[in-house]
Design brief:
The chain has 336 residues and is an alpha/beta fold. 28% of the residues lie in helices and 22% in strands. The strands form 2 sheets. The protein has a 7-stranded mixed beta sheet with strand order 1-2-3-7-4-5-6. The chain has a 6-stranded parallel beta sheet with strand order 10-9-8-11-12-13, sandwiched between helices.
Amino acid sequence: MAIQSERAGAGALLRGWERPLAGGPTRRELACGGCCVLSRAIFLSLNALGDTLCITPALRAFRKANPGVSMTVVTQAAPFTRVLDGNPDIDLLIYSERLYLNGIPEQRDQWIGMLPIALREAATLYTMDLRAVVTNAEAFQRHISKAFATIVGVETESVRPLIVLDELERRAARMLTPKPYAVLSWHSVSNPEREDGQGRKKDWPVECWRELARRIRDELDFDVFTIGSERDPFPTEQGVQPLHGLPIKVVAALLENAACVVTVENGIGHLSAAVDATLVEIYSNLMPLPWANPAEATACEVIYRDPRQTTVNEVLDAMDRVLAKRGAVQRCVSVS
């Protein structure tokens, strides 16, 4: 089979053309033979954890708007993309090693034709690339999920990411956590440099994380875990246990059952929103708030200010408030 753009070749012929959508993105129509009725949608995603999660509300809205269309998602074979496993809106999920190792090939149409998707009917290819719709500062004043929804031509009712967990993943998380615990996440992949030269925009100072971990142990008697990839720096503080490199859905189960999660704005923040974790998010006001605000979380506080001006006491006070919302234990602070 050959997928072609305005040129002939041997094999079953699929003609592709670019059609601009409102807001600037493009989609590619893959029309087979004389068929013009859309029965198949293919979503191509080369995104990090947070954006992968933020695609799911757009997929949910697309499914609702197009109940008769089969939906195939092609994404990179990265460990974190397994958050899509079990998603009820996806009919076929392809994890591509080539996409993971080399990105989208220059000969994209030919590469798609080699994927195991058995493309025989009319289809539309949506490339889930935010660069197509986020073209100015104003675009950052809406949630990431709404930007993805623009690409596929739908409106989202919710921006909360969707993830499906099973008992095996929850059991694995319970095995690691014999007592109440807090989860800390301080690394962000997408983290531009500050204009003042004092590090990166989303970072909370390391010494603050260290003090926070110590006081959580002393004042709440929680175990303290950090999470991240195997490439992220491991903490060296005594009493802080790194759980780096866990399967991503076990991480989700860990967040789901945590007494509290404290994170900068990152993929773990979006994953926490997906499982409605008890959450304190240190969200730099050097970044637009609407872009990734977990507004639909039920036990969440966002500290929206310059992280370098955010104190450990402010974070602990926010933890007390979200713990109270869940009826959980709060700090025991002695007053002399």
